[in-house]
Write a structure and sequence with these properties.
This protein is mostly helical. Among the domains are: 12-219, MFS general substrate transporter like domains (Growth Hormone, Chain: A), CATH 1.20.1250; 222-278; 447-497, no CATH class. It contains 20 helices and no strands. The chain has helices at residues 28-49, 55-62, 66-69, 71-94, 96-116, 120-134, 137-149, 154-182, 187-190, 193-206, 216-219, 223-242, 252-274, 288-317, 323-348, 353-370, 380-406, 414-454, 460-475, 481-517. Helix 1 packs antiparallel against helix 10 and helix 8 packs antiparallel against helix 15. The longest helix is centred in the last third of the chain and has 41 residues, at 414-454. It is globular, with a radius of gyration of 25 Å. It starts with 27 loop residues before the first helix and ends in a 20-residue tail after the last helix.
Amino acid sequence: MSTAVRLDPADAPAPPAPGLSDTGKPDAATFFAFTLMAFGMFMAILDIQIVAASLGQIQAGLSASADEIAWVQTSYLIAEVVMIPLSGFLSRAIGIRLLFVLSCAGFTLASLACALVTSIEGMIAARAVQGFVGGAMIPTVYAASFLMFGRARQARVTVAISFIVTLAPTIGPALGGWLTGVLSWHWLFLINIIPGVFITAGVALLVRFDDHPDPSLLRRVDLLGLVALSLLCGGFVFILEDGTRRQWFDDEAVRAVAAIAFASALILWWRIRNAPEPIISLRPFTNLNFAAGALMGAVFGIGLYGLVYLYPLYLGRVANLSSQQIGTTVFVTGLFMGLGAPLAGFLSTRIDIRLLASMGFLLLATSTFITTNITNDWRFEQLFWPQALRGLGIMCCIVSVSVMAFATLPQVMIKDSTGLFTLFRNLGGAVGIAIINTMLAVRTNFHQARLAESANPARPEIAERIEMMTNMGIARGFPDPEAFALRALANTIHREALVMAIADAFLVLSIVFLCFALIPPFLKKPGTFSDPAPDTH
């Protein structure tokens, strides 16, 4: 297991990296270039969720069916998940700077294509390209931060990156709903054009560091491993995204994709062990802290993406709020993430980072446990503190987990590890959403059956409600007021069953977060980023 060590006093200090002064302080051009890269990563993550609140408008504009429109988001996720682990190989082959420039340029062109398409097939294809090329921007920013700022300033840089990673999916639905309401759905993609061009040019001109790319790797690329990786990652995300809607393995397509993904996993494992240049490297997982950090990152992904999905679902389907009202409500999380970022950065340099990780998961557990008492009349005021605690917990988790995952790794493993870490976080979010959807479907049916048993018309209170709704139907001139009353009662039962299922989901998440709060103290305390790690092979 690799651990961070201090340099022997007799060792001569290494010369500063390009872009760093003799004191290791980055110059203005380096800082500005990294800011551009971080904003590019923000765009790539934002576009995962920016269409979430506007799928109805896109569906109408492209004359798509309900099944087809779901692929506007799913195609992006699948393509992005395929690229993220591949980015480690590509960064070793062509270098971090060139990979980011090509990724940002491709993302910008694909965004333009998304805005100009006139068919759902064209939109799905353009979104897949957008997700694939944009996926490389996320892990390359992590890797670039080590080369551009050195390990001594990594804690503060990690806070900044973590804030971007968590803020983008939080504000995505709100921003998308606002753009669609004020302008049109085309602007969900058009807003990427000018920033994309500016970032591509700026990074190409300003980013400079010793990257040591090896273009000969491209001639030795493991094509079979690449195909297996693509089929495995893409198939896994497809199953998670469409499993609930297709009744999981009762559906022939899901069974076929699962079989292909399983076979691809076996082939990929064989190629990793035997190929001269494997398409991905699993060496970072030999470091216990990185392996545990990746697993905690996956659980954190559930808290990030799963709750971004669950809160708007409640506010839309139960509270019947508009997209803008939902955005205003969930923005509390983003606000407290912003307030918590400097606090998490300060604590990461003052206390044991393992304690900070446990604090973060405990805050997430507290946030979801409070919400287990949710009822159909919860709105902004009742959801304020759960979301505030979630925002603080997210920042404590992402900063501490990132430090624990990377601080003890040798520099030579950084390029591969950043893609794997990002992959685990995104897959954790996909797994979380799939679990939440399945739980809502199962538990809603369970609670609905129990409530229906209690809704016996022979009970005085039920008879009184039916009579009241019948009189309302008569007053409104409905042709069959009694049927109206029964439908209203059935809708009330379904709403209450859904609220109870949502409360069940929050309870399960509370238990998961609480369990993972117990893991960090058992890990080896990582060295600080000011302790140079050995660059060994």
